[in-house]
């Protein structure tokens, strides 16, 4: 930061009105006004999830059963093109029983015009956000948008600082190959640690062999981290509809992927699955874990 450009004002910390209650784009997952990073390896379905999030925000519909605020949304694409975006969007909308007419004056798409390390790129997108009264933006994806070495502290720090000008931002990102094969709660965004440090919320995904996906919060500056939920994507053949459904941590589709859950979460899942109105025997919990655990 160039300290010469900072306008430093002394503020009296008494006699002020209570600040407004914190707002969330998605309750307890995506804070309003800040960046959230979703980090996961390729093939998990990050982009489809982002599209489902975009539609939920546009229409104020729950996202994976979490309350979601209604926002105008800008999707900023650094990976594909508008035709592929439309193909994928149609599949998500079809899975929700909707068509694109419901997104009129609610959702816009733009290909990233340059690297986010460039002040010109930042200002160009910022002007669209202001002109269209955008309340929530999605960047797909962070490492590619850098246009530079994601492991370099200076590169990442400059970009992250610039992205603050876009307001509420959900940025997709990758994880390293070694992290991708381990537990989701051990993963972090690829490259410099400054991605993790400068984001206000970081989510990760871990996919099970049975198709279930674990989403968890590994960082949240504004709520208790550690939030964990699970969902499944149902794909129709021939590029048909894609449906998202929230599932319990006991769901069999998470078999082969329970290493993405911490040990106590696996034990609690066992208790929920076994409980039928009376106490659960310890031996029964051990048996359930032996049957379902893959660790």
Describe the protein in words.
With 295 residues, this protein is of the alpha/beta class. The protein is built from nine helices and eleven strands. The chain has helices at residues 46-59, 82-95, 119-131, 142-146, 153-163, 177-180, 194-198, 263-274, 282-292; strands at residues 24-26, 30-31, 35-39, 73-77, 107-111, 136-140, 169-173, 201-207, 212-220, 228-235, 242-247. A nine-stranded mixed beta sheet has the order 5-4-6-7-3-8-9-10-11. Helix 8 (263-274) packs across helix 9. The longest helix is centred in the N-terminal third of the chain and has 14 residues, at 46-59. The radius of gyration is 21 Å and the shape is globular. The relative contact order is 0.14. The mean pLDDT is 90.
What is the strand and helix layout of this fold?
Elements: E1 24-26, E2 30-31, E3 35-39, H1 46-59, E4 73-77, H2 82-95, E5 107-111, H3 119-131, E6 136-140, H4 142-146, H5 153-163, E7 169-173, H6 177-180, H7 194-198, E8 201-207, E9 212-220, E10 228-235, E11 242-247, H8 263-274, H9 282-292
Parallel strand pairs: 3-7, 3-8, 4-5, 4-6, 6-7
Antiparallel strand pairs: 1-2, 8-9, 9-10, 10-11
Helix pairs in contact: 1-2, 8-9
Based on CA atoms alone, the radius of gyration comes out at 21 Å
What is the mean pLDDT?
90
Tally of helical segments = 9
Largest sheet: 9 strands, mixed
How many runs of DSSP E, i.e. beta strands?
Answer: 11
Secondary structure category: alpha/beta
The outline comes out as globular
How far the N terminus sits from the C terminus, by CA atoms, comes to 45 Å
Spatial arrangement of strands, main beta sheet: 5-4-6-7-3-8-9-10-11
Q: Uncertain runs with pLDDT below 50, 5 residues or more?
A: none
The level of helicity is 25-40%
Beta-strand content bin? 15-25%
H and E order: EEEHEHEHEHHEHHEEEEHH
